[in-house]
Amino acid sequence: MHTCISRGSSYSPSGSIEYTPLQLAAKEGNYEEVEFLLESEENPLDTGPDPALHLALRKGHVEIAFRLLEKGANFEIRDSYGDYPIHIACAKGLLNIVEKLSSLGCNLEKPNSKGLFPLHLAAKKGHIHIVRYLCVVGCNIDARNADNIRADITALKYGHQDIADLLDRLRHSGQRDHYVRQLVPTTKPAFRLILRVLGHCAVGKTAFIKSLHAGLFSSLFKRSSSLQSNKSRPSSPITTQIEMDVTSRHNSLTFEPPIHYHSTKGIHIQNIDISGVGDVTVLEFSGQENYFPVYHNFLSPSPNVLTVILFNLEDSPLVQIQQVCFWINFILARQPADLLPSSYGKVHLVATHVDLTRTPKNQNGEWISTDAQKTLEAVKKLIPHVYNLDPNVLIVDCTAPACHGFKQFKALLASLKHASSTLSVGNWTGLMESIVTLLGNLRKGFEQFPVLFKDDIYEIIRNDVNPLASDDHIEDALLQLHKMGEVFYTGDLVVVCLTWLGKNLIGELLSNEFISNARTTGVYTADDFQACFTECDALGTIQLMESLHLCVQCLVDDDVEYEFPIYNQTETLPGLWDAHDPRYKSDETIYGGIQLHTPPNTLHLLFSVFSHIQVELRKATLNNQSIDNETDLYQWFRGSKLSTDNFETMITLNKPQIPSEFIEVKIRGSESFTSDVFHFFNQVLEIIDQAILIVCPGIIIEKHVLSPHELCIHCPDPYVYDPADIFAATLDAESVLDIALYNPNIDIHESITSLIMFGDADLANEIEWGCTLKINALPAPVKLKVCGLLDPPEPQGKDWCLLAFRLGLESEVIASLDLPHTSRTMRLLNAVDCTIGALIANLHDLGRKDVADVVLRSAPLVHLVKNSSLLD
Ligand SMILES: Nc1nc2c(ncn2[C@@H]2O[C@H](COP(=O)(O)OP(=O)(O)OP(=O)(O)O)[C@@H](O)[C@H]2O)c(=O)[nH]1
């Protein structure tokens, strides 16, 4: 929309100065207008006495100022006040403009017509970040203005002691050059090799790490003692016939440590020096399930991480496969699925306890275990989409550091370290070096509670390390140190000792003992919490728990309390979903529900997410923007119920059992509120999706629909419509709204309107059907799984290339997708412009029912127009 000013008319603000349309638009902050005028070329950029650039800066319209500078606005002219743009930017504290001007070669040390330097103006207005910048780029801090006054005196005069101190320190310490040099990135890459060790309880993780950094001499002692401890264990000889069909078996995963066994608590994080490799940060994750809700914080993908998954060769092949599959799915769920393969670190399987099996050795002393290799092959078949999974299994006796497996592993670490050092990770700076030294002191000084507020650590770094470090310098350094495992940085808090975080905090507060002694409601005041956890300051601990999404502050009868869903052991109350509740008894009550399943044979993934969902639900009810503030939320172990006057919804987590686990969300309300019920249900699903995204961004969720009719008559086990069946029906139907699906439980057909829209066909205007959505609406984890299935060339040639051809891509485009080291299928899915429905149809035609099924089961069934989504 362009007003009359764009047509060339001008305006005189006081009758004396006539502004051009460009000046006026710049002054008023009308970016669109400025853009339009700049395109039209008739508008001179630098008309005086107040050019558009100066006017925009005076009003703080930074984006417009950038655009004008890009278009070549002159920054070496003064306005009617006698200021150059640099003076206005410094006085206004516009750091990015000062940086931009500097990069364009602007003179930062010229006085304005009043004889004030940019430094003086920044000092006068108290913009210490500008003062720091000007000092870093070399401005003369001794320059005197027209009144013969230095900038530090100006700062003092206007009450900015911090600036005066900074300039004073630079003048007297003689360290200014050193500080500046510290901020310049070196050519050394900022990285440390990180080793993550995962596996069930007692598979040998601790022993593995100990042996890894043990000297040969000490290993002799360890070997003899561990042999003693193990000799008494019955050795179960491995069956040679590996059970491939893990899927039809019962769930034999258990996360309990053996009785009378001191299991690792939390996450054991240490920096160790491995001979021939050097410094490695090692994270050993306990195999106990109660710790899983925090592991995502430590499992983000990174090219300089090696993840090892340990399994015990003494276990049956079925158990080995189930355990390894569990951990691989666990990692995949916690990593975003849309990165380049090179962004994920390597994954290696390690078979332990080989010495207690009858595995033969070759001449080199290397164990040759076909059983271990079969486990790997079975896992690869079940989960084909794992990037960088090593094709070999490492076979070790964890108690024998001198064994061949450890030599192989150290060689692998050394080569990874060598390869990673050439990766484009961040660059090392002198600032980071000094912060690492500072961290050593902070760890000693804050031994009891090594957690600092972000603002405090910024201040300490400036006081003790470098007063010229900008917010960006410090932020970058902390993020890099977080990636290297030196600190844990949550955005508001910085934990300076990871060992403490993993062991003393997570290890204690999420331990079975703490949980079983915690309040059953999981709700504490700060004082109550302090009484239970005396090791550290309760409020600080709670704050850290909040930043890990483990607790949420709430008001109970006007008192501040904290809810920890991980501690909530309250039993569900009878009558929470009472069939005889008078409010929901009439024929006019509508019911609906869905189950969020993880794909078949992936178990124990949703347990870690559920407490986060409960935190998010509480936050949503407190924050009336996302959920009506009249909503009442009641939460118990594995369940939450949200109620309003007119409808209620219940969210529960079922016990994991083969074939899968699920979260169930059901809702009921009065028919006269159908639209509200529909939207409320949708909001709850969004909150759940949000929590899932925080913990498991790489998880695939299938949304199964519960029979509304059976929900209404309160059948204990209502029929669940498979998402693939519903999706397939929408593909085949002439008119989607005419679809009805058969419910064998009660021998009736239920309409798609009742399944998806609570029976209100008008709501169809608010949704788009999944089959009509474009492929890019497929969640990234689904795309990744499709890639895992389509990337390996099919023996009969039914692979990604044929699919690309069928989807109408030209042969040159197909050729351009055919690059090594990346997934061709992923390139195809990102390049092609077709609907999910067309993709499924073509996969069927290609004979790839397996891939089509993945899409049918996990593609969004519908998408809500108007910025929100239902069931996607
Ligand atoms: N003989 C033999 N014993 C092993 C081997 N690996 C581990 N052990 C022993 O098995 C027991 C359990 O090993 P840990 O290293 O504590 O197991 P973990 O995986 O760290 O277990 P958590 O602490 O529960 O996480 C210890 O007694 C080890 O000495 C192995 O390869 N061979």
UniProtKB/TrEMBL annotation:
GO terms for molecular function: kinase activity; nucleotide binding. InterPro entries: Ankyrin_rpt, Ankyrin_rpt-contain_sf, DEATH-like_dom_sf, Death_dom, NOL4/NOL4L, P-loop_NTPase, ROC. The keyword DNA repair does not apply. GO terms for biological process: signal transduction. It comes from Agrilus planipennis (Emerald ash borer). Pfam families: Ank_2, Death. ANK repeats lie at residues 48-80, 81-113, 114-146. SMART domains: ANK (SM00248). The gene is LOC108737873. Transmembrane segments: none annotated. Its cofactor is Mg(2+). Residues 186-420 form the Roc domain. Keywords: ANK repeat, Kinase, Nucleotide-binding, Repeat, Transferase. This is Death-associated protein kinase 1.
